[in-house]
Structures are given as structure tokens and as C-alpha cells.
């Protein structure tokens, strides 16, 4: 499937909030079923259709590398979108959001689109953070807010696509300097054998990149 | 603060001593220099790596290949000790990481240590030319690490150069040669996380031993497998088992690596090991690094304010110095004693008796005369001393009656909320607002990361007040002569201000160096020791305390006559270095002064 842009995302948040889970749910439809899980180069990316354009989302999952702190911070810089995740059943993960936000604001490019994700909404009986609190936090910090369940796939697509749409809007507004690779957006160059007329008009269906 | 951590000797262990006693060749000399009992011998670097001291180790003097080889030799045993159980546990980030994944934690520590060392070395070079040289040097270190197939450390260096504080140093990057730039951009491509670390994965699957891989990739893969095939008690699914075993097998293959062709270089390893890295301080160090980066290369737009701030601080510093000058001259008018008259004499003559004061900043030997807070970070909350003094000065300006600057200092001191004064010598002569004071010998080992040209023990009267330490120099008169003692008592005047009233008494005494009167009444230097590293050393019948200011690269040693005194001082200095300042309370007090 063809695409016009590559957007780079990062997923951050405390340990065990379900970062990897979200990514797997989004990029790998086989998440629920068992498979051989060969982790190849396409792992963590998927092409979606946003604003009538194909966009390849390339997502950097930092799970497991939390101890390599300097690496995570340098990830921020080259990303166009960030998914900041907390666990609605664990208050502390919500309390740490301010720290994460400050970190992002300090080390990312100023145009980064941030979506706040309250994950594990399938476990609402064990809820410790109310939806209103998440909404209020997002409003105060100018973030997009969404509650998801990586387990049941509720709103997972939405989280990634809303972010992509926002980035597309910003591109249209001319906010990004697309010549700078560090903004986390790459214009996809057409392959030589490709017909430029069909490229834009192709009808991308949302299939897994894997 | 890791960036500057190599300033300080890490707390040196007995090992150094043991090593020294076994080696009486040239090597022992360099290790002596490294050791705590360093006597500051300054030798020219004629011997290869012989001049070695963590405090002023010049990274440019060590060949990149030697750094790379020694880092590799240090990484290898740690990497080899990682067990499959630790990998499968998925516990290397959890609270129980030290029990369940000790060696993984140690190995990531190695990564972070190299990473912060690189950042620190670059950031402490405040001259652009040096910085460019160091950057180029580290690019070569990274290239050599790549050549040795130590991908872990190669990545640590490359990521350090890509970290926020270093990445933004545009002028430095601009200064690189084309060759270095090409090398770096290749390395950068190599470690790029694009397409799920495509290039790195390709390299790791096709490489030959020896190789120390970047562990992070495998850790993320394990977490993914764990997410895909969670272990919910009972028997593990085959998919999970196979996938995890597969990763463990890959790691254990890499663990067969040997680097016999690399020769250990003891002093380089000692240096690298002495770079302090504390996980707990990491966030703090990262912030410090970024601030330091803004100082050495301010942003054109956003950070012009930080530059301004810096300039303002400098202004206030010179202001303070002037103020000390005045004080030394004006003081005598107030006090009525022979000694002070003689002091007056010399100062009014502007003779050489007080040359250091009048020639301002750097003159006080290794001291910078209250100038140290200049580089204090504006937001760090450490400027209270400066603030207090400035405000006191302002106060004095507006009150012509009390234009004695030194009183300004004592005023400001009295405005600080004091702890119980504790004076080991029970000297009633001192109008004490100090928490603790006494005489000691001091030597400067390092100043702004540089070793002073002349360094020797000097006697000081030192007082601790909250987080501040005050240094009183020796008086300039001959101490063996009987003098008229100037007895001073502290009274309170109607304005509720502490002033010094002097009464004269004709006692003939001979002062010894533990007497308060042996030293000048007014401090020549005041320093905040907040967050300094205080280390006590009582070996070989020496009673010394080493004080290291890791942010500014200063290091001092205090010497005491006996163990008991050294112990007391150690406690007190420790307290002062961790003293919590109450800024709000402080300013209230200042208002109350008016």
C-alpha cells in the first residue's frame, strides 16, 4: 500500500501501563491469537488512511529500555507524535504525568502532537482515575485525550489516527518544517516504477503493515 | 552530577593503596597521584599516561583506541555475567530489579556511565575550540568501539552525542572536520531506531565474535514477547518458550566473546571507573547538563534571557568584590586597637599588605572571593548567600550610619535563622552566628577543573553557617610578638542590630594557630557547599576531609590535627552540604531588617 508521509511516534509512560500492548494491538491484528512473533523490520509500523492520504506510522516503543534513559530522551526529538499512557487502575501512573509532560516539553520539538491515553478502561471496576480527571489534565496541558483498552482494542485505532489527523492538520497549516528530518515527518518518495497519478488516488484500506 | 563527576575522585577504596604498595615502579606514581593522598605533584606529561589524575584527566591525551579498548575490557565481564533467568524475568525495570536482574542492571549502568561521561567531558569544555576537539575525539572513540564490535558502548557514546544537551551545540558541530562528520553520520545511521533498528539488527545477526551487543533491543523484544504471550501461571506456552529461548541463545552466543587481543591499561581503566554515576541522580544530572549546555552555547532567541541572567550574576559578583574591598579598609575605623590600627596603616598605604583584596577577584590565592556563586544556577536556589549579601549591601547604602560593609555581612548573617551555635573551642570572643567553627588547614586541589599552579596548605579559621562556609585568613602581623588583645563583645543596639563593640584589654599573649584571634575577623570568602561531596579520609595517620563541588569542578582538602576533630567537622560539613534552605523565611527576615 502506498503512502504520502511517514510519521514517527513514540509511546511513553510508566512501566506496565500497557505501552507494548497498545502498539501490538494497533500494528498487529494477530495480537490475540498466537503466532510465531518474529520481530522483523516492519514491526511497530502500519499504514493508515488519514485525510485521504496514506500515512505510514512508525512507532518507537521504548518498553524494556527504560533504564537506558538517555536513549529515550533523544527519541523525543525526532518524533511528530507522542502517546503518553497511564493506567486508569493505578493512581501513581496518573500522578507521574506532569513529570512526563515536562520531559516532553523540554526535549521534544515544540510542534509535537501529544495524545493522553488512559489505558485499561476495560477494568473499570478497578478504576482509580476518573475519566473527568484525565480530561481535565488534557485540557490544562493542551493534549488530545482518549481512554482505551489495549486488551479489547477499544479506541486504540482512534488514539493513533486522531494523532495522525492532528499532525496532518498542522502540516496543512504549515507548522512543520518538512525539510528538517527532526520534526518526525518524512515525505515518502515515490518509487521510480510507480505511477504518480494513482499514488494519491489509491484507496488505502487499513491493513496491518506486518 | 555526572557530567562533572570525574572531577571528584570517586570515593577511593583501599584497593588503590593495596595496589600502590605492590608497585614501586612508575605506575605507582601515577596511582599515587590518583589516590586520596595525592600530594599534588605536577609533572609534565612526558611519560605515556604517567601523569594521571582523575581530577584533571585530559581526555585528549588518551588515544581513542585506548579508551575504546579499555571500555570494552570493562564491559565484557559485566555482559558475560548476565543470566538467562534475568532476561526471562522481565524484571530489570521493576522495583525488584536488583534481586531479579542484577547483572542486567549492572550492564545498563555501564552504558549510562559511558554515556554520561561523554556528555560531561564535552560540557565541561567551555572554550569552543576545545569542545570541537573533544567532540571529534569522542567520535573517534565511538568509531573504535564499533571496530571492536562493542556495539553497546558505541551506542552509549553516539547517543550521548545525540542527547539534548550535546545535540544543540551547533557551533561545536559546525566546527567538525568533514571526515568526522561523515564518520558520525554513518554511526548515527547505524544506531538509528528506524524500521525497528533495521541496520543494527542486520549487523547483529551477521556479525562475527567478539561482539558486545546493544542489549536494549533484546530487552524490548522480550517485553513484546511477554506481551504477546503472557505467562499466566501454569505451563508456559510453546510459542513463549521458543521465542524467549531464541533470544537467550543469541545472547549466550555473544557471551562467548573474548577480547584477548586487547591489553589492559590500568590507569585508563581506573580513570574510567572513577567516573561517578548514580542512578538516583540521573534526572538531576540531565537537567544540570542541559543548563550547562545553555551556558556554554546560549540559544539565539529563547535563551538570551539565560545569558542575560548570567551577565547579571557576573555584575553582582564584581559588585560583591568591591564591597569586600571597602570592608577591609573601612573596618579599622570602627575598631580601636593597636592591631587594627596597624592594619589600617597598611591598608591605607595601599601597600602590599593587602594586595590580594585590592586586586580583586582572583587574587586570594586559590580563592575567588565570594565570587563562586557567580556560576550558580539561577534556579537552583543556591543564590541565597549572594542575595543576602546584596540586600544587606543595599540596606547599608540607604543607611549611612552603617556603611561598613563587613557589617553588612554580619547583618545578613544574623538575619539567617540560626541553629544552635556550637563552638568547639568555646571561644567567647566570637560574635557567633555560626553553627560551627574552628581552625584548620586547607589546600585547593582543583579550581574550575584546573589544578592551581601553586598549591599548599594554608591555615584558615572556618565557620559553618547553614549551607555556607566562611573562610577567615590569617592575620598579617607577626604572631610571635605579644600583642594587645582586642576583646570584642556582642551587644544589641537600639535598632536591634548586632554590632561589634570593642573594648580594650592589655593582655600579653602569644597566639597559636588554634586561637580565633590568629585569624582575621572578617571572612575573605564565603561559599555555599550545598550538594558538595564530602569525603572523610583517616588513613595513614592523616585526618583529612575532601570537599568536592561537582558542578563547578572545585576540590579542597581540609586537614585536622586529630581524628576526633576531623570526625566532628565531617559531620558538620555533611549537615551543611545537605542543609535545606528556606528562602521564603530568609527574605522575610531581610524585610524585618529594614
Automatic annotation (TrEMBL), chain A:
The keyword Protein transport does not apply. Coiled coil: none annotated. It is found in: Endomembrane system. Residues 194-210 have a biased composition (Polar residues). The keyword Glycoprotein does not apply. This is Ras-related protein Rab-2A. GO terms for cellular component: endomembrane system. GO terms for molecular function: GTP binding; GTPase activity. The lineage of its organism: Eukaryota, Metazoa, Spiralia, Gnathifera, Rotifera. It comes from Rotaria sordida. It holds the Pfam family Ras. Its main location: membrane. Residues 189-210 are annotated as: Disordered.
Automatic annotation (TrEMBL), chain B:
One of its GO terms (molecular function) is guanyl-nucleotide exchange factor activity. Residues 433-578 form the PH domain. The keyword Zinc does not apply. The keyword Ribosomal protein does not apply. It comes from the Eukaryota. Keywords: Guanine-nucleotide releasing factor. GO terms for cellular component: plasma membrane. Residues 63-299 form the Ras-GEF domain. GO terms for biological process: Ras protein signal transduction. PANTHER family: CELL DIVISION CONTROL PROTEIN 25, GUANINE NUCLEOTIDE EXCHANGE FACTOR. This is Uncharacterized protein. It comes from Rotaria sordida.
